[in-house]
Amino acid sequence: MPVESAVTLLQVAIGGVLLGAVYALLACGLNLIFGVMRVINVAHGELMMLGSYTTFWLFFLLGINPLLSLLFSIPLMFLLGMGIQKFLVSRVVKAPELMSLLVTFGISMFILSLALYFWSADFRSVPYFTGSITLGSFAFSRPRVIAFGIAVVITLAVYIFLKKTKLGKAVRATSQSSEVAAICGVDVERIRLLTFGLGSALAAAAGSLLVVIYAVNPSTGQTFILKAFAIIVLGGMGSFLGAFIGALILGLAEAFTSFFFTAQLSEAVAYLLLILVLLFMPSGLLGERE
Amino acid sequence: MRRVIAALAAILLLLPFFASPYITALLLLIFMYITLAESWNILSGYTGYVSFGHVAFFGIGAYTAALLITQKAFPWILASLLGGIVAVLFAGVIGFICLRLRGPYFAIALLGLNEAIKVIATAWESLTRGGYGISLPPVPDLRSIYYAMLLSATAVVLLTYRLASSKFGLRFLAIREDEIGAEGIGINTTRYKHAAFILSSFFPGVVGGVYAYYLSYIEPESVFSVSITVKMIVMSMFGGAGTVLGPVIGAASLALVSELFWAKFPYLHQVMFGALIVAVVLFIPGGVVALLQERNILPRSRRV
Question: Does B12 fall in a domain?
Answer without folding.
Answer: no
